[in-house]
Amino acid sequence: MRINIFIIMLSAMLFGCKKKAEPTVQNYHEGKLTVFTDESFQSVTVALADGYMIHYPDTEVKVEVRKEDLGFLDLLQGRAKVAVMSRDLSPAEIDEFERVTESKYEPAKFAADALVFIVPKDSERSALTMEEISAAMESPDKQLIFDGTNASNLNFIAQKLGKKASDLQYSIISGNRNIIGELKKYPGKIGVIGLNTLSRPYSQEADSLRSQVKILPVSHNGKITTPDTQSLANMSYPFTRVLYFLVNERTFGIAHGFIRFSCTHLGQMIVDKEGLQKYNLYQREVKMY
């Protein structure tokens, strides 16, 4: 069941009655930072954290896995300074974010990821239509397998279909990797995972996971599209989603430094090496003399 944002707001208001301490000045190139991320985009978040620590050796960036809704709640309550998100916030959530953080809601977009539909390698199924996906989410057969409630994958498909997550019908296997590993046990079922689980081109783990399943292209408006860097870049794959950071830090410290790094050229190179589409596309200009 989705967390009630008004409970969050009430809790935050109670905490907000206490006098706030003056923010301390912190350097962006030293100190400790915790980042909350959904498991579906854990890999790219860890890669960016590793890159930041290599670039700034006096920093320690810890990535903790949280279901997307829980990570947002923890961010509001100050348990972390950065959370990775993929779904759009509601107007009430945006208002509460701005009240708690005392800053404007400005998502720091850094990558295009996707929700992908997988079947075992030997499955006869070769594609899906948007109509089939929508119908499956309302069927008591619960044909589609997700990694749980309050998580990014279910949140995103609910928004895409214009429905409440609590009204959808689905099966659950905890964890994207576990869905891949156990999918063969459930003939006729289709796994729904984040592309980043499979996208790393130079990872032995990702190679092993890719060897077990195939990604189904999706037919939409008469076109069949496979999730790849080109279809993510032009948003032609219908389940493309943009990953972004939210920050709860009142000064320019390590949290803002990490976000800036992730959105500039070095960070975007890491996103590219993760097999995802860079959000900030840099044009190269070659001058001939």
CATH superfamily of the largest domain: Periplasmic binding protein-like II
Question: Helical element count?
Answer: 11
Number of strands: 13
Distance between the termini: 63 Å
Q: What's the helix and strand layout?
A:
Elements: H1 5-16, E1 31-37, H2 42-55, E2 59-65, H3 68-76, E3 82-85, H4 91-101, E4 108-120, E5 128-129, H5 130-136, E6 144-146, H6 152-161, E7 171-172, H7 176-182, E8 190-194, H8 204-210, E9 213-215, E10 218-220, E11 223-225, H9 229-233, E12 240-247, H10 254-263, H11 265-273, E13 277-278
Parallel strand pairs: 1-2, 1-3, 5-10, 6-7, 6-8
Antiparallel strand pairs: 3-12, 4-8, 4-9, 4-12, 4-13, 10-11
Q: Would you mind describing this structure in some detail?
A:
There is one protein chain. With 289 residues, this protein is an alpha/beta fold. It folds into two domains: 25-111 and 242-278, Periplasmic binding protein-like II (D-Maltodextrin-Binding Protein, domain 2), CATH 3.40.190.10; 113-240, Periplasmic binding protein-like II (D-Maltodextrin-Binding Protein, domain 2, 3-Layer(aba) Sandwich). It has eleven helices and 13 strands. Strands 1, 2, 3, 4, 6, 7, 8, 9, 12 and 13 form a ten-stranded mixed β-sheet that branches. A three-stranded mixed β-sheet has the order 5-10-11. α6 (152-161) links the parallel β6 and β7 (171-172). α1 packs parallel to α4 (91-101), α2 (42-55) crosses α11 (265-273) and α10 (254-263) crosses α11. The radius of gyration is 20 Å and the shape is globular. The chain starts with a helix and ends in an 11-residue tail after the last strand. Residues 5-25 and 282-289 have low confidence and may be disordered.
